Amino acid sequence: MITPLRDFFYTVCYYQNLDFNNVRYNPCKDKSSFTYTALPIVLVFSYKIILSIRIGLKAGNFCMGLQMFNTLKHLSSILTAVLAFFYNQGLPNLLGIWIISSMISTLYNYYWDLKFDWQLLEPKCKNWRLRKYLTFQPKFIYYIIICINLIMRFSWSITLSPTVQGYFGSPALLTLVTGSIEIVRRGIWNLLRIET
Length: 196
Fold this sequence. Notes:
- The protein is an all-alpha fold.
- Helices cover 67% and strands 0% of the residues.
- It has helices at residues 2-16, 34-37, 39-59, 66-88, 95-117, 140-160, 171-195.
- The longest helix has 25 residues, at 171-195.
């Protein structure tokens, strides 16, 4: 949802600032603009936060309930995105904080996938750290998916990473690679989510 929103903001910017006299200059590719880099991420996760708060309040158990922790998950993603934006603006002392925030956010989202979305990690279960009933056989497929999901979760951090982006040469190539990884990850996520 973030990439289409970014593309929408880019398109609006492009047609607002279209200058036929200077076709080589494109102000919409400016990485210093919060509106075209971090705002789409903040908007998407803010919407998810509002939904989590609403569901928690409606259920009457927001404080210390599941939806409060879901809200914290989305807040950690916003924090990671905003820190990456400010690091890219030339604040080098934020790199360590960004790395820590990125790791916490990724691992938090990863744990949430396993425990709450896929209902895995049951401690007293005949299928070690999985769940009682499994649809797919053999069960080692679940362990492979658990490992692959962690790797694919870290690909989200790459899109925000101030240093890794340069290795791909082109931002479009990076978007293609990470977007493809995210499509596969979400496909796997949906299979296991439907199963529960």
